Amino acid sequence: MSTFTSSTARSASTVPTSALSDPNHEDPVINFTSTQDLFEAIDCVSGDILIVTNVSPSSFAEIEEQRTIRRRKFRWCRYEAEARILVITIPTSVHEVLHTQLYGEYIEQLPASGVPRNAWFHKAATYFRSNHPRGGAGGEGDSSGAPKSQRLGPRDWPTLVIEAGASESLNQLRANMRWWFAASNHDVKIVILAKFDQRQSKIILEKWEEQAATRHGATTTRPAATLQPVLQQTITIARDATTTPVSYNVTSGALVLEFRLLFLRNPGPLERDVVISVQFLQEYAELVWSQV
Fold first, then answer.
1. Predicted structure pTM score
2. Which residues lie across from 210 on neighbouring strands?
3. Is residue 60 a contact partner of residue 78, using CB atoms and an 8 Å limit?
4. d(C-alpha 117, C-alpha 55), whole Å
5. What is the pLDDT of residues 239-277, one digit of tens each?
6. In terms of Cα–Cα distance, which of 203, 208, 206 is closest to 283?
7. Is the predicted pLDDT of residue 6 greater than 50, yes or no?
8. What is d(CA 203, CA 286) in angstroms, rounded to the nearest whole number?
9. Rounded to 5, what percent of the chain is helix, strand, coil?
């Protein structure tokens, strides 16, 4: 465990609970009635997520058009036409710092991994439509990117996606993770989840990859059909307000991102995995809490 101390102590305030929350769900859920009602509901949400049910493809097209016309900044976390569910990301200050600072440090560490920064292509919150044969789905990541040499096209999926959640539950973030792997037909290789838990004064980082599942008794299978998400690393950054100054304790060490998954090839003699250090994670936590 490593400890970082801040020169300025900050007290954490309680995140307001949305009046739209359903007691049977961890995240706020509403039923779609009209585009105008939806936009008004979004304005009432205090957190960074809203789940909308009963959204038909035609309704989604109308909502998407109105978002552009009204220049609203919320994002489509994902839309599932078959289930008629729209998950909306509302970019609060905490939410944005959670993913932008982590992604920014990843970019900063590329030269140390033997790769110039301009070899990486930022896909940011590009809207991606599902590659799954059943289709009818799409989503916008918080931060994402891919190697410029292989995934430069507008329809090319990122190899790395970072999804953040402040009020959004960890269960919902994991649903987003599963969607990215499945919707991209496994073109996405790493999904990092950054969950801010104000009540327990901690940030949880999860690194997910896919691995082939073992099927007993099977002789031949299609590789894509057997891939399953696997949690490869969990890092907890705990805020300790009892110390003077406030400290941030990191468990499980540095965040390591595999070169071969990011760049779709094995590393060369002078190339290596991207490492996001414990020291940065401590500074990162301080920045996140500064937005509370």
1. 0.87
2. 229
3. no
4. 40
5. 999 999 999 999 999 999 999 999 999 999 999 999 999
6. 203
7. no
8. 11
9. 30, 30, 40
